[in-house]
Amino acid sequence: MNIGYACLTVGIPGIKQRTCTMKKAAPSVFLSLIQSNLETLDKILDYNIQNGIKLFRISSDIIPFGSHTINKVKWWEIFNDKLNDISRKAISNGVRLSMHPGQYTVLNSPDKAVVERAVEDLRYHARLLDAMGLGKEHKIVLHIGGTYGDKTSALKRFIQQYRCLDENIQQRLVIENDDRQYTIFDVLSIGESEGIPVVFDNLHHQVNPDNTCSVIEWIDACANTWKSEDGPQKLHYSQQDFSKRPGSHSATLDVGEFLQFYTDIRNRDVDIMVEVKDKNLSALKCVNAIASPKIQQLEKEWGRYKYLVLEHSPKVYQEIRQLLKDKSTYPVIDFYRLIDEALMTPVKPGNAVNAAQHVWGYFKDSADENTRLSFEKRITKASMGESTISIKRLLWKLAEAQQQKYLLDSLYFRDLF
Questions:
Q1: 290-329: pLDDT as tens digits
Q2: DSSP 114
Q3: What is the torsional sign of CA 287, 292, 297, 299?
Q4: Angle at 98 between CA 45 and CA 184, to 5 degrees
Q5: What DSSP character marks residue 142?
Q6: What's the DSSP call for residue 22?
Q7: Ramachandran region of residue 52, left (φ > 0), alpha (ψ -120 to 50) or beta?
Q8: What is the spatial distance between Cα 257 and Cα 262, in angstroms, rounded to a whole number?
Q9: Cβ partners under 8 Å of residue 332, min gap 6
Q10: Which residues contact 268 (CB under 8 A, 6 or more apart)?
Q11: What is the structure's pLDDT at 404?
Q12: What pTM value is reported for the model?
């Protein structure tokens, strides 16, 4: 079982997806942006591989205006070597890639122009995965679309348009249930009739359920639509943000709740894409939750979180230190529960200053007089309630200059990226 996340990372330096407006679109701009975005994808893969994350969804914006006629750059030829380098890295490390076109890629629209744009968008997505030389287990996920006042006719239109798609798109396409219109029963009716693999989305099912079967029965029914050449069955997993409309993804994942879901499927060959605001951070939570229990994994995580936690809550900071003292245990649920508790606590000026001074301890003996004065000035402002961003920029600059890897990996600096 592999765990993954979508599109971007949180709190990881040097990773930024770039795009442009149509007004600034030009071949030279596209070439620069594509080069930068492919380098970013390469760095994301390095991070994922180092952290045991074997599933990743590539952003549709990696090629700006990839399906638009304004982009006439033959990027699949120009960047052939880089695309293949990324592909080889993914394949050799067992990383499965996918893509997920956005809400405007609608195959079953009654508007012919909308359908034509959807087809072009799917061609772009398939072209990227094909240009990377990836097998058909690297998928393109799509929703069915709208109902337009007549779900039966809308389902028929989807099937008609699917049958007209290029074969390389058909071989990659998978479909999922949504949170408003098409239940898992609706999507399975298409998947089973047309031989399209079906992705079960747990949160969409909670919001837009079909209760004729249990969740695990629906997951097993979806499994039957996945053939060996499609790779392992994929699931989408997320949790509700209760402050927003039903179906909205939470800011982070509750590990205990995830493990309840995992318990029912742990003996199945499935890959789980987590859809959550803090991206890689929650994916790593889940990876650690289901991994062989080794306290060293939590200690490594603690190294990343400790100064961020200290900034929010010295009380929780001490509780986690005590929790990790017993090396014979693996308190993964309590560990992440405490981290979540800390990060939900508003930062107070005194705590912000305390955390900054702890990090400053790495540099105070080697810093010159001007740097010390600059730090003290910023600390004074922070103690009066001003933002700590300027302090963190100074400390980050020092960490880079001295190549303090422990600090360079710290989520204390995540607001900078």
A1: 998 999 999 999 999 999 999 999 999 999 999 999 999 9
A2: H
A3: positive
A4: 140
A5: E
A6: G
A7: left
A8: 9
A9: 255, 288, 289, 293, 298
A10: 1, 219, 220, 223, 233
A11: 94
A12: 0.92
- Architecture in CATH for domain 2-290: Alpha-Beta Barrel (3.20)
CA distances from 332 to 51, 199, 290, 309, 329 (A): 16, 28, 9, 16, 9
Residue 96: phi and psi, rounded to 5, are -100, 130
Distant-in-sequence, close-in-space partners of 220: CB < 8 Å, separation ≥ 6: 268
CA 42 to chain centre: 15
Residue 70 CB-density burial (10 A; 0-12 exposed, 13-18 middle, 19+ buried)? exposed
pLDDT at 297: 92
pLDDT score recorded for residue 26? 87
CB atoms within 10 A of CB 216: 13
* Residue appearing with tokens 């033959």: 74
Instruction: Give me the DSSP letters along 151-177.
Output: HHHHHHHHHHHHHHS-HHHHHHEEEE-
By the 10 Å C-beta count (0-12 exposed, 13-18 middle, 19+ buried), 303 is classed as middle
Provide the residue ranges of all domains of the chain, joining segments of one domain with +: 2-290, 295-416
Handedness of CA 114, 143, 232, 330 (dihedral sign): positive
Q: Which two tokens stand for residue 327?
A: 């090396």
In contact, 173 and 225? CB cutoff 8 Å: no
Q: Which regions of the chain are under pLDDT 70?
A: none
pLDDT attached to residue 24: 87
> For 233-290, how does the pLDDT look when each residue is reduced to its tens digit (9 = 90+)?
999 999 999 999 999 999 999 999 999 999 999 889 999 999 999 999 999 999 999 9
Among candidate residues 134, 81, 356, the one with its CA nearest the CA of residue 364:
356
Give CA–CA dist 230/224, Å, rounded.
11
Are 27 and 73 in contact, with CB atoms under 8 Å apart? Answer: yes
Strands 198-201 and 233-237: parallel
